[in-house]
Design a protein that fits this description.
mainly alpha, globular, 62 residues
Length: 62
Amino acid sequence: MEYPQLAATVIADLTSDLQPSMAIQQIAQGWLRTDPVAAEQWLNSTALPKEQIRQILGKGKE
């Protein structure tokens, strides 16, 4: 993903009808490959439930 921060900004403007949580997850997965620290900080600032964030980060219950 070339511009994850821009994509993250666009996600913030989505309505609930567009399922922003799926878009957040897709952006985060790409961003984690290029800048995991920034991606994790951004994920923690989203409205996603903490359990979902842990799963995206690979820190879910195993």
